[in-house]
Amino acid sequence: MKHKIAILPGDGIGPEVMNEALKVLAKIEDKYDIEFEYEHALVGGAAWEKYKEHLPKETLDVCHRADAILFGSVGGPVSEQDNEKWRGVEVNSLLGLRKEFKLYANLRPAKLYPALAAASPLRADTAEKGFDILVVRELTGGIYFGDPKGRAGDGEEEYAFDTMVYAKKEVRRIAHIAFKAARTRDKKVTSIDKANVLTTMVFWREVVEEVAKEYPDVTYEPMYVDNAAQQLTMRPSQFDVMLCGNMFGDILSDEAAAITGSLGMLPSASLADGSFGMYEPGGGSAPDIAGKGIANPIAQIMSAAMMLKYSFGMTGAYDDIAEAVETVLNEGYRTGDITESGCKLVGTEEMGNMILSKL
After folding, report:
1. Which of 11, 27, 104, 144 is catalytic?
2. Cα separation of 228 and 133, whole Å?
3. 147: annotated active-site residue
4. What is the b/e burial string over 211-238, where b = at least 16 CB atoms within 10 angstroms of the residue's CB?
5. Catalytic, out of 32, 67, 254, 358
6. Can you tell me the distance from the alpha carbon of 355 to that of 359, in angstroms, rounded to the nearest whole number?
7. Could you confirm whether 144 is annotated as catalytic?
8. Which residue has the higher pLDDT, 343 or 61?
9. In this predicted structure, what is the pLDDT of residue 91?
10. Which 3 state secondary structure label does DSSP give 354?
11. Would residue 254 show up in a list of annotated catalytic residues for this protein?
12. Coil, strand, or helix at residue 307?
């Protein structure tokens, strides 16, 4: 069997960490007697240099021919954000792909490995308990996409506005994703809202509660977003699956990622109906360390592993890669973002090779 994959390395450390993920996929080809066909394309600042667009038609064509997208990262230095090459790069690239391919479900696992407890910013007694959270974020609705939005008026009367909108079908489909995921984990869904203030969130809670009745084997609880942000730092182990709207999911998934010790550890999957998906690391392009060979490739490697699981149904391959990553961490190997006293400091390529050796 052959699977077609669009490879979009992007900017900054993207090409470096993507290279390590492709090495792991090559090993999976051998181990599982399967074939991956790659087609590379430009996105972000790299695409701007050639096309004067962040997401050119040529790249979209490559993605349409593929069974899945493996994405690196986009973005440039903070000091250059007003440069036309970088202005709006994430919105144009990521939101453009999400909209084009109707990628409405974002899955972001946040796991604190026991070996990395010391790297977490959490209090030691909290970190030692560990956690394994899956944030399920609705990705194509809510305030990021709602109409109308804009600016009006002038002078001191000028104002700006965005609109939060959710249709019942949008809430229902993401809720089903969360509850189905919970059935394969610890069977608990915590739905995050602000139903004490926002009408849209009252509606969100009502629809999620309807869906919850279809999963009597899964524990369901609602939680206000401000409390959820606090609980993530105080008692993260209480969470299994966190179901969130677009904006709250954006914020809380980053918080969940940060308390694992490094954004360089966190993969993500953005899924459409069916098997098509886009897979990307949770961190950014890190232009300050690009080209130095010190970036953590684990998030990119695990994003590729999620692609195998969710788009190609290769759960065994996903488990193999996840086990290899944990073994390497247990043996004390660390990139600079997760380094600690007494560990074995390695670079991007070395970390990739260590994981490869465990496969």
Report:
1. 144
2. 13
3. no
4. bbeebeebebebbbbeebbeebeeebee
5. 254
6. 7
7. yes
8. 61
9. 87
10. helix
11. yes
12. helix
From 226, 273, 288, 319, the catalytic residue: 226
Do 174 and 192 meet the contact criterion of CB atoms below 8 Å apart? no
Closest CA to 351 of 80, 84, 8, 13: 13
Looking at the predicted structure, is the pLDDT value of residue 185 above 90? yes
- pLDDT tens, residue by residue, 28-70: 999 999 999 999 999 999 999 999 999 999 999 999 999 999 9
For the chain, percent of residues with pLDDT exceeding 90: 87
Pairing of strands 159-161, 150-152: antiparallel
CA-to-CA separations, 29 to 2, 24, 26, 37, 63, in angstroms, rounded: 10, 9, 5, 11, 21
Q: Domains of the chain, with CATH numbers? A: 1-106+274-359 (3.40.718.10), 121-259 (3.40.718.10)
What pairs with residue 43 in β-bridges?
Answer: none
In the residue annotation, 168 being an active-site residue is answered as no
Structure tokens at 9: 């390395």
| Catalytic site includes residue 4 | no
In whole angstroms, what is the distance from residue 250 CA to residue 244 CA? Answer: 8
pTM for the model stands at: 0.91
